[in-house]
Structures are given as C-alpha cells and as structure tokens.
TrEMBL record:
Molecular function (Gene Ontology), one example: ATP binding
Domain of life of the native organism: Bacteria
Keyword Transport appears in the UniProt entry: yes
InterPro entries: AAA+_ATPase, ABC_transporter-like_ATP-bd, ABC_transporter-like_CS, DrrA1/2-like_C, P-loop_NTPase
Protein name per Swiss-Prot or TrEMBL: ATP-binding cassette domain-containing protein
Domain annotation ABC transporter: ranges: 8-235
Organism: Dactylosporangium salmoneum
SUPFAM superfamilies: P-loop containing nucleoside triphosphate hydrolases
Family: Belongs to the ABC transporter superfamily.
Keywords: ATP-binding, Nucleotide-binding, Transport
Amino acid sequence: MKGVNDALQLEQVNRRFGDRQVLTDVTFEVGAGRMTGFVGANGAGKTTTMRIILGVLAADSGTVSWCGAPLTRDDRRRVGYMPEERGLYPKMSVREQLIYLGRLHGLSADRVRRNAADLLDRLGLGERADDPLQQLSLGNQQRAQIAAALVHDPVLLVLDEPFSGLDPLAVDVVVGVLRERTAAGVPVLFSSHQLDVVERLCDDLVIIAAGQIRAAGTRSELRASFAQPRYEIRVDGDAGWLRDQDGVALLDLDGDRAVFDLDPATDEQSALHAALSRGPVRAFGPVVPSLAEIFREVTR
Ligand SMILES: Nc1ncnc2c1ncn2[C@@H]1O[C@H](COP(=O)(O)OP(=O)(O)OP(=O)(O)O)[C@@H](O)[C@H]1O
C-alpha cells in the first residue's frame, strides 16, 4: 500500500480555462520527507496545480502520481489539504471541527481526540479550543486551518499559503509541526509569497511563472546553478582601487567593503592576491544568490 516515504509526481500537467492556457506541461516531484516550496507570482498557477493534485479540479492532460501510480480517490482521502479558500465553519469550535474532520477521515474517536488535543496544544490554541472559530484572531484561525489539514495523520500534505497572516513566532511553531511530519517521511508541498520564509525552511523549490515550471531542485542546487562568479571583500581602508583592477567589474562599493564580478579568465585567488598586496584582507568569499534573486531571474 502506498504511504509515507513515497514521492508525489506531476508529469506534463496541462489545464485551460476557456481559451486561456493556465498550466503548460507542469512537471515536478515532491520527494518523501521533503519540504517543497512552491513559489510564483499572483496568477502563476500554484492554486490550480494544487487543486489538480487534490482532484478538486481535473487536468486536461498529464498525470499526478504517487509511488509511481496515479493518485486515486482513496489516496486523496489520506492527503492533508489546506485550500486557498480555507474551509472551516465559523460558528463551530475548533476542537469540534477537528474531531468532526478526523472522524470523517475514518479515525477512531479516541485517536482523533488525542490528535486534536495534541495539535491544539502544539499550535498554541489550547486555551481557545472550545471557542467558535469566528471569535479567534486571524492568525489563530490560520493555525486552526493548519490543524485541520493535519488531524487525520495525512501521508501527504498540500498546503496553499499556510504561512500567510502568521507572525514570525507562529511561523516557527507551524514549521516545527510540519518538520515532524517530514521527519516521518511525509512529502510536503506548500505555496508561499514569503520568499524569506521559503528560503529558510524548504528543502526543495519549485518556481512557476505563467503556468510553466521555470526552475526546480534542491535549494542548494538552485543556488549553485544560479551563482555568478561574484565575490564580496572587506579590506582595511578604501576598496576603491578595485575599480581599476583587471578582470573585475565592481558592483557595489561602500568604503572598505566591495561586491564585484570576475570575468571568466580571472580566478578569485588572483583577485585575493591583488588585494593582499595592498594590505590586510578582513573577509573574502563568494556571494550566494538569494531565493529572491533567483526568483527574479527566472520569472522575468
Ligand atoms: N475557475 C477559474 N476560471 C477561470 N480562470 C481561472 C480559474 N481559476 C484560476 N483561473 C486563472 O488561472 C490562473 C492561475 O490562477 P491560480 O489561482 O492558480 O494562481 P496562483 O499562482 O495560485 O495565484 P495567487 O498567488 O494569486 O494565489 C489565473 O490567471 C487565474 O485567473
């Protein structure tokens, strides 16, 4: 039987709305135990892709498979989904809803009570558990939505913007809870516009623009493949002499600190030697591109 430790794969998924192609040959994988960030501008196709994974929406062509076989209705019952439109009842208490959802997914009454209590506690909702959802702050409602996606011990998680509206401490709490799931082998796909959060917590990244996957891979693979021959240096005194150094294109100069690119014929050791011949070098190293820079590069 399929279960945790199995990857989710999308292959050549296409979808149109009317005469508008919104997904074109979308192909990527969410590996077992991998926290996979799904990023793209507004309207890029993230929610549509997630809805297709969940079967809420059909693809025009292409496949969604899990453990090498198409994802079935039964499989989908074991997925934890946090939809963009959210889905809890405003008038029902958080605890009641979690118990209801867990029972709907076939968990025993005992098990679901324990799972609900544990999640409420972990997510800092213990004291508000018996209040109607609508009386909670927006951040706490968001935590409740996360609890709802997790209460039935899902073997795959698909979360549409799980961190939106959460303060930094709440983000850390939710990350801690999700990390427990990935440690148990659960593949997690989450979309987010908060690139700093994605950068900090995802293992893998999928970048989509205008319905096409523009880049996918581990965080470090992507950083390495988008790395420029770019360096940062800090010297004693003014670093302005770098302007006239052969093979160096100065990008930023701030007194004793400079960022520069090297042309392909110049290696970084000769730049370092040149700097040392002028005095002490306090810091020198490659500049690794941030996710925000990679995102701008691949989506422009
Ligand atoms: N039911 C629909 N009918 C027609 N067009 C739709 C429908 N759902 C989505 N679209 C269009 O498909 C495109 C992709 O939308 P989608 O919601 O998947 O993007 P997204 O990446 O999730 O955006 P956001 O970050 O703003 O949530 C958009 O242009 C959107 O207007």
